[in-house]
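Appendix B. Raw example, untouched.
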Amino acid sequence: MAKKILIGLLVIILLMQIMQPTKNQSDTISENDISKTYALPAGVQETLVNKCYDCHSNNTKYPWYVYVQPIGWWMASHIKEGKDELDFSEFKTYSTKKANHKLEEVSEQIAEGHMPIKSYLWLHPDAKVTADELHAINDWIASLGIKVRD
């Protein structure tokens, strides 16, 4: 009986590997990307791309373990949630009010340590936004006339 259960579980695990989630990857930068909406200082652009775009754009860089299910499904779910909340690839489609609010939230979420999320930082510790990077982001946001917390 135990052998049948073990074989059944193994078959289920193997079948799970066949069902891969759709990848969130694009070969190009969207015409609606935030970089096409605003002039981003080089350091701010680099920080957003390297530390935010995996979950908040159409250009996720996938690690090898994404092909192991259910990890891939879990990551796909996180990316969907991240893009539902803020999508830098579609930023140009936001109203001015919504865009300004999203930029306020970028500053706030980073400052409060909510972004990047802890589970992402476990395997990507270099994604933590430094104080200098946050300061540059805040300076840029403030230069747009949007109030940010100090």
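End of appendix B.
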